[in-house]
Hints:
Elements: E1 2-7, E2 13-18, H1 21-28, E3 32-35, E4 42-46, H2 58-67, E5 83-86, H3 100-105, E6 110-112
Amino acid sequence: MSLSLILYPNGEAERTYLYGYEELQKTVGGLIECVPSDDRVTIWCNEEGKLNGLPFNPYATAQWEEFDQYKCIAAGDLLVGTIVIQGPTNEEGEATDCPAWLFYEYNFELTGD
């Protein structure tokens, strides 16, 4: 279970707990893929989102810019569909809670708990 920030393509954001792999898959609408980022967060997307024509997510792409240590965005990459941001992985390889500062720093209009 990890406290997660969910970013939707329409600009809405949700703060919620996700319980495992299946809930991550359900949230992003398919197989999950970890987006290359630094060690402050874990960003999940739909692995086949671009192939399946999911809508561009400008809000998540803008957020990813802060964590994009590999310069994927500069190389033309972007995020599509619903995106989940959680904390960095722990010793067991599981994502931890999304950092609290992320919820507040960007003034997301949050729904959920």
